[in-house]
TrEMBL record:
It is found in: Cytoplasm. Residues 251-255 are annotated as: ACP-binding. Residues 109-190 form the Beta-ketoacyl-[acyl-carrier-protein] synthase III N-terminal domain. It comes from Ancylobacter polymorphus. This is Beta-ketoacyl-[acyl-carrier-protein] synthase III. The keyword Lipid metabolism applies.
């Protein structure tokens, strides 16, 4: 039987209008632009407006991705939405996106793997498409992390932002140019679950809670985990740091990104960086970066794009996509 590939047809993103700069944060907590830039590379981040929820951001991003693909909502039969900041405990934010787009067929569900969520969602969608069960999928990362930040805690509130990004993936039989998702590798290790977590939840505190993080511990593990799972992707495909065109990492921290690229031997000019403008938008960061690099003409049809993420759980993941 001929093989099915999941091919990227379109990409889109959305950022809330309000920008919060490091100077703004210095008015709120004991911090400075110099400290934040030097430790993280972040200069500004976007914050959702009062009443603007995760599904609102996701719908904007999905519409942009559909427009980029030249498709309509009717063409979509699967939505996989990665988020750790859903609109409600249930139903899934994905069904609000489905309804918002006017789609009444197919399926929509959420997936939670914190900052690795988008790569987990991409791999999940890819596997559904490859079985032939669905034809076209919106893979979305959308977050309103501003709602789970303790705005009096300078060690976390300076790091995160809100946003959404989406890809349209299409199942293509006998793809002749070798395009599509080539491989994906997902990992987790729950022994680290208390190093980056939210201190509330439905079943534990009946509340939402705030993000808590042992920043140094996250940093200590990040580069090793990221590089391990990228080596898995290279070994599975025969590709390498030399053959990839673009490295689009999760945008948590400029130092983690730079150290990972150096360890892997990836040339700096291949690295897509948006953390300076967006902060860490968790599951949204990779599709936001993909959308930026696609829109400005860097990522082109046929390019080999390496994705990686690492986050709470810990979870970590990589994927190689021929664009
Ligand atoms: N402004 C000024 N000073 C600060 C701030 C701030 N915003 N935050 C912490 N400090 C202070 C600390 O209180 C400490 O002061 P002390 O020495 O008087 O005790 C000092 O700065 C150093 O604190 P550290 O936590 O040791 O700083 P570090 O160099 O480790 O940088 C950071 C902190 C940026 C959080 C870093 O550990 C990091 O990037 N970790 C990775 C975390 C991450 O990226 N998480 C995202 C989610 S996971 C993921 O997506 C990969």
């Amino acid at each position: 039987m001929s093989a099915i590939r999941s091919v990227v047809r379109g990409v889109g993103s959305y950022l809330p209008a309000r920008c919060l700069t490091n100077a703004d944060l210095a008015q709120m907590v004991d911090t400075s632009d110099e400290w934040i830039v030097q430790r993280t590379g972040i200069r500004t981040r976007h914050i959702a407006a009062e009443g603007e929820v995760t599904s609102d951001l996701a719908i904007h991003a999905a519409r942009a991705a559909l427009a980029d693909a030249g498709l309509t909502p009717d063409d979509i039969d699967l939505i996989v939405l990665a988020t750790s900041t859903p609109d409600n405990t249930f139903p899934a934010t994905a069904v609000s996106v489905q309804a918002g787009l006017g789609i009444t067929h197919g399926a929509a569900f959420d997936l939670q793997a914190v900052c690795s969520g988008f790569v987990f969602a991409l791999a999940t969608a890819d596997n559904f498409l490859k079985t032939g069960a669905y034809r076209r999928c919106l893979v979305i990362g959308a977050e309103t992390f501003s709602r789970i930040l303790d705005w009096s805690d300078r060690t976390t509130c300076v790091l995160f932002g809100d946003g959404a990004g989406a890809l349209v993936l299409e199942a293509v039989r006998d793809e002749e140019e070798g395009r599509g998702v080539l491989t994906s590798h997902l990992r987790s290790d729950g022994r680290h679950k208390n190093k980056l977590y939210v201190d509330g939840g439905v079943s534990s505190t009946r509340s939402v809670g705030f993000l808590r993080m042992e920043g140094r511990e996250v940093f200590r593990h990040a580069v090793g985990m990221i590089t391990d799972v990228i080596v898995d992707a290279f070994e599975a495909t025969g590709e390498s740091a030399d053959t990839i065109d673009w490295f689009v990492p999760h945008q948590a921290n400029r130092r983690i990104i730079d150290a990972s690229a150096v360890k892997l031997g990836i040339a700096p000019e291949k690295v897509v960086i948006t953390v300076d403008q967006h902060g860490n938008t968790s599951a949204a960061s990779i599709p936001l970066a993909l959308a930026a690099a696609h829109a400005d003409g860097r990522i082109k049809r046929g390019d080999l794009v390496l994705l990686e993420a690492m986050g709470g759980g810990f979870t970590w993941a990589s994927a190689l996509v021929r664009w």
